[in-house]
Every structure is written in structure tokens, then in C-alpha cells.
Amino acid sequence: MGTANAATEATPDPGWAARWARFGPRLEAALGSVYGTLDPAWYARLVDDIAARAAARPATLRALDADAPRAWLTDPATIGYCTYVDRFGGTLAGVARRVDHLDALGVRYLHLLPFLAMREGDSDGGFAVRDYGDVEPRLGTMADLEALAATLRPRGIHLCADFVLNHCSDDHAWAKAARAGDPFYRAFFHVLPDDAAVARHEAHLGQVFPRTAPGNFTVVSGLGHVWTTFYPYQWDLNWANPEVFRAMALALLDLANRGVECFRLDSTAFLWKREGTPCMNLPEAHRLLQALRAVVDLAMPSVVLKAEAIVPMRELPPYFGTASAPECHIAYQSSLMAAGWAGLALGRADLVANVLERTPTLPDDATWLHYVRCHDDIVWPVLDDEAAGRSGVPGFDLAALSRHYAGDAPGSTARGEAFQSDGGHAHGSNGMASALAGLDWAHAHDDEAEREWALRRVLLLYGIAMVLPGIPLIYMGDELAQGNDESFRADPERRHEGRWLHRPAFDDAAAAQRHDPTSDAGRVFGALRGMRQARAMVPALADRAVDAGAHGPVLTVARGTGLFAAFNLGREGASVALPEGRWRRLAIDAHTTPDDGASAGAIALAPYEQGWWVRA
Predict the structure, then answer these.
(1) Cβ–Cβ contacts within 10 Å for residue 415, how many?
(2) pLDDT at position 219, please?
(3) Scanning 21, 335, 366, 569, which has its CA 20 to 30 A from the CA of 607?
(4) Is the torsion defined by CA of 283, 285, 286, 292 positive or negative?
């Protein structure tokens, strides 16, 4: 097996010996729990390769490893921003030129959606990776990536990149070699021998894209039935092969040495396959994440791992691992995101409060990521328990929510679209936040009252994210109240993929209005800035405990004894009682009237209004 001495002989890294003593046993235990008795030569080679990446760490990045690594994760001043490189800045160099926009929002965490070399033609928005070691040429070069990271660091902005774990593109070098008959690389993929084997697996599997990519296997000439959970051109990697673990772990470390500080681990729930199961959330998937966590702790202790596991709340906390076997530092709070939109449609606060009540307090070095929208759809099945009445709140119809946000329900002003849904089954909903909230409808009908309500709805959902412990994430365009992008329908490579509805290009004209509070862009931009400033200034937000309550349509959130927030999710005015004591209302935007102090008692909230109070 690899030893501390062998590793330190290969690297001058002064911290390696101490880290090896602490994290080496964890790495070996995690890998052993997946692969059984480890091949000594394979393991020694893996350890030496990890040590070589640690030794090659640039001095500026090694300084991050030594200086309070990962402290930003739980800093209330941290908020995030998520975007595609080409939609935001055109190229990586163009992203660097927009840093002032991010800084003005107070962004301290930037998630760039896939920018590595991707499949030619349709690439699922870059999630079909052709080369984990290179940037997509139309977006720039590795030198541009390093330059961007170097631009962000002095601004205190931590760079996050997607790292697609479950699959690679069918034109990746590994896939090409497998297709050509190379047995080493054929073992990188799951290949079933015949229709009968496929049928046995399919009997237990769900479908991610039942309309556009039904089934989970693709027949590849000369190879067989290749496992393709997502699209036929995305071949699932066989993580039961330890060579896959080695190749992917080293690719991640190489990107970290280019300046990437955080990795969104895509499709973590799907990593392990076992016949007779849904092949989601299996124990081995968690052990693989434990092994990857040990790798980064050992080599680069400032690197952060984020789990992209869009699963119901009961299945989400395990992705953080345990004290003795940690996994990811961040996970998406997908149930809360969906519950917020459901609560708005139904005028009910109990859905959000219930999710918050069932959200566990996390380890000190871990955090939630709270988001309102993202590049994907709103995945309604994460609320299966809530909809069925199994979580302590009255049930509701997920299909009705899907129809509401598609504008197909009485009284709905939403302008989204159903995604991968048939008949009475609700899979997801597409659309930008402002369009789902009714802003597109309000402008089309020149309805000023609906415009005001739509803006309040957007800000209310972001307000909930901002008062919770964790990292609030702004999806590009939401800060400018951008609407849906219909242009994808004219593009042959994108028109089949409805999620492009909410992947617009950055609107420079709207950005020019961001400081005009009478404009849509200025209203939302100003409020998000105000919320972020409040997060940075209110000591109570450092308290990780949350006390949530539901009072009809009004959600209340208390953080310690120093902050009280209320959110009216209903179409009618409502009231809520302030706790005992004297309180001062914060002015989170130009439309909020602050006060110097209010006593405990009823506080009126207009439709979709929110209020934040601190102890006076």
C-alpha cells in the first residue's frame, strides 16, 4: 500500500505528512468499502498521483489551503451566482470583464455551468463532456480559466465548476477506445449483453427524460447495450471499476490546480448500479463520495465539493456524510425551492415551514445552497411526501402545480412550460423566475398591479433564501428580472430541449437600468443588494438554528433572538404578530419603509410582502 513516507518523498509539500496521517486511513477505508481488498500496486500508484498533484499546487492556491480554508461556506455574507459562460460573458475572458457586476451584487461564490470541452452538436448544455482536461474551445483556454480564477480571488469570489461524475460524452477518448474494442476502456462503461439483461434492469429504473430520451440504455454498434441514464450520447461511467475512480479523481485535482475552488458534482445519486434497484442513492455512491472527499482533504484542503442530488428531503442529508466519513460540503435544498413555488401557487406557508422544520442542522463545515431557480427545471417529485400528505401537511396535486406554472389553470399569470410531463404526471416546470411569477404576463397585458405582485413574488422567494443559514444562489438574469428566452425554438440543436426557455443571454439593456428603482431590473437588483447587505450586517444570521412557523399564508422565520422575518405567500393582505420586545424593520430595498421601533403585536403585510425585523 502507499505510505506517508512514499508520498512525502514524491513531494516537498510541508503539510503532506500531517494530512496523510489524518486522511490517508479515511481514503483507504472508503475505497476498501467499495472495491474490497485493494490492489497494492494500484493503490500505491493512486497515492503517488495524488501526492504529485499536491506538490504541483501553485503557491497562491496553497495559500488558500493554509488560510482558514472553507470559512466562506458558513459566512452569512456569502451569496452565490450561477450562469453559463457563453450566456453571461461569451467566453471565460468575457466573464472576467463582468466581475464588477458580480461585485456590485455582493457575490462571493460564482458557479459556472459546464465549460469543459463538450460533445459536438447537442451536448445537453455541456453536460456531455468530451475532455475533462480542456476548456471548450469556443469558450476559451485553460490559460483563460487560470486568468479568470486569478481575477476573482482578490475580489473574494470563489470559483465553482461543474464536474460531471455519472457520464461522459460518446465522443470522449474513453468512449472512442471502447467502441474500437479496447478492453481497458470498455470496462469504463456499463455494457449489457442482450435485451433480456436490459429488461431486468429497466423493470426497476425510473426515467430522467421520459419524453425526449425514454429508456436507460442505447444500442451501440459493435459494443452492445450501453447504459445511458440521461441522453443516448451520455455514456454512464462504471464506477465499479477502480480505474474510473482514479481517472476522475485526478482530473478533478488537475482542475483544482487551475484555480477552481469548488466542484458541483453532477448526478451524484446515480453513480452506482445494481440490478433489482432503482440505481439511485445506493450506499456505494455515498462511499465513493467519501473517497473523493478524502482525496481533496488530503491533497488540497481548501477545495469544496457540492452534491447535485435532486432528491426528496429524506434522502438528502446523507450526502453530507458523517463526522467520521464526511462527503460533500454543500448540497442543494431542492425541496425548499419547490416548496416555495408550491406555496406561492397555493397561498400556503405550511409547505415551506414543514420543509424547514425537517431540515437538519448541519456539521460546522457544511452548508445548504438555497436557490429560487437554476438551469434545470423545478422538479416536482421532490415534494412527493408533501403532496401525498406523508410529511405532516395536507396533501395537494403536483399536476395542478405544473398546470398553474404553465399558465393552464384559472387565474394563473405564470408563463412557464411543463417539462417531461404526460397526462396527470408532473415531472417538472420550466421558465425564468420572473415569468413564473407573472411578470411576462403583466407586461403583455399592461397590468401595473400584476407587475407589482410579480416583482414581489420573485423577491419574496429570494427573501426566504436570504434569511436562512446557507448560501443563497442568484440565477443569472433573475437579478435583472429577465423573462423567458423563446429563441431556442429556432435552433435545431436546442429546440427539443425545453429547459433552454430559462437560459437567456445576459441582458445588457436591463443591466443598464439596474440602478433605476422604477425599472424591473432596478427594483430586483436593488432589493437583492439590500438583502445581501442585511445578511452581512445582522449578527443573528450567524446563528445556524431556524425557527419557522406558518400562519395561514404567512411564513415566519426567526434566527436566534435577533432577527424575525415574515413572508406573505397569499393574494390577500394578512397579519403576523411580532415576538415580545422592541423591533426595528430593515429597509431591504427602496420600496420598504423602515421604522425606528415597533412593539410586539400584529403587523400587516400586503399581498406577497415580506418584512425583516431586528431587535431595536
Answers:
(1) 24
(2) 97
(3) 335
(4) positive
Q: What are phi and psi of 583, to 5 degrees?
A: -130, 150
Specify the pLDDT at position 423: 60
Quick one: which of 299, 239, 213 has its CA closest to 22?
299
- pLDDT confidence band for 8 (50 / 70 / 90): very low
Amino acid at 112: L
User: What pLDDT sits at residue 7?
Assistant: 39
Residue 181 grid cell: 474494442
Long-range contacts of the stretch 193-202 (C-beta < 8 A, 24+): 193/224, 193/225, 194/225, 195/225, 197/225, 198/225, 200/275, 200/276, 201/273, 201/275, 201/279
As a whole number of angstroms, the distance between CA 501 and CA 494 comes to 10
What lies within 8 Å, CB to CB, of 90 at 6+ separation is none
Catalytic residue among 136, 162, 236, 266: 266
pTM: 0.95
pLDDT of residue 13: 81
- pLDDT exceeds cutoff 70 at 3: no
* Separation between Cα atoms, residue 434 and residue 457, nearest integer Å: 8
- How buried is residue 57: exposed, middle or buried, by Cβ count under 10 Å (0-12/13-18/19+)? buried
308 is catalytic: yes
Task: Please check whether residue 306 is in contact with residue 369, taking contact to mean a CB–CB distance below 8 angstroms.
Answer: yes
Listed in sequence order, the DSSP H helices in 468-609 are 508-511, 520-537
Inter-residue contact 188 to 166 (CB < 8 Å):
no
Integer CA distances (angstroms), 482 to 97, 464, 478, in order: 21, 20, 6
User: Is-catalytic flag, 266?
Assistant: yes
Residue 403 grid coordinates: 398546470
Catalytic residue among 13, 144, 171, 308: 308
460 close to 574: Cβ distance less than 8 angstroms? no
User: Whole-angstrom Cα distance, residue 311 to residue 572?
Assistant: 33
Residue type, 607: P
- The model's confidence at residue 9, banded by pLDDT at 50, 70 and 90, is very low
User: What pLDDT band is residue 2 in, cutting at 50, 70 and 90?
Assistant: very low
**What pLDDT, in 10s, does the model give residues 20-42?**
999 999 999 999 999 999 999 99
Judging by beta carbons within 10 Å of its beta carbon (0-12, 13-18, 19+), is residue 229 exposed, middle or buried? buried
